[in-house]
Amino acid sequence: MTTASPRIAALQTVSSPDVADNLRIAAGLIAEAAAAGARLVALPEYFALITADERAKVRLRERDGEGPLQDFLREAAQRHSVWIVGGTVPLVAEADDKVRNTTLVYDERGERVARYDKIHLFGFQRGEERYDEAATIEPGHRVVTFDSPVGRIGLSVCYDLRFPELFRSMGEVDLIILPAAFTYTTGKAHWEVLLRARAIENQCYVMAPAQGGKHASGRVTWGHSMIVDPWGEVLACREEGAGVAMAELDPARLAAVRASLPALRHRCLQGGQ
């Protein structure tokens, strides 16, 4: 990986049912992060749309490689000469009535370099609070890693955070990116401890751009978009509202942690053993 200490930025939004307004806000945050020197910026899950109508994302879905949301990400990467991790975009699924909840990555030229379809689908019910992503989302099945100017990156989305075997399957990565829209209930209880655990056990940086606040639909998301270092220290956090959390990814810090505590090399149980 690069020997410099590139800046990375997690962008936080409070998305609404108004796609155009959501894209306007996202564009402003991308510009802010790029102006502050970020080499790579990441948007949260559902950055283009959050609404009480769960079928809305099915109507908004795009074919792989074409559509206004993908154009937005591509053009923003080109305009600001930054790598963009596009939170999630609803893409056409095999099932006619569902979408793939997909993270797309574009380089500074606007060329797509990675696609990850969310594998684990959130389900939760407590009192009147209920979520069932499987009703409108078709799960992916492939672990995705790729090389970038800030190092080797592994992709994940929101509920994936609770499944450590996914992150082990990535192999040795320098940065895990997890766009999310954690609920206030589950986020308050588990968000930070799980992010720090994933960073510690995989000895890498973790960046989690999130939705953060009360949405027009009535949904409340936890926010606390965060960047965590390989020792589990929180380097940056945006607690609530739209904004940017930024930090440096320091290769020397990675190397020092892995050299002083070589846990990745001490693993004994691999490949299902």
From TrEMBL:
It comes from the Bacteria. Residues 4-251 form the CN hydrolase domain. Keywords: Hydrolase. GO terms for molecular function: hydrolase activity, acting on carbon-nitrogen (but not peptide) bonds, in linear amides. Transmembrane segments: none annotated. Belongs to the carbon-nitrogen hydrolase superfamily. NIT1/NIT2 family. PANTHER family: DEAMINATED GLUTATHIONE AMIDASE, NITRILASE-RELATED. This is Nitrilase. It comes from Azoarcus indigens.
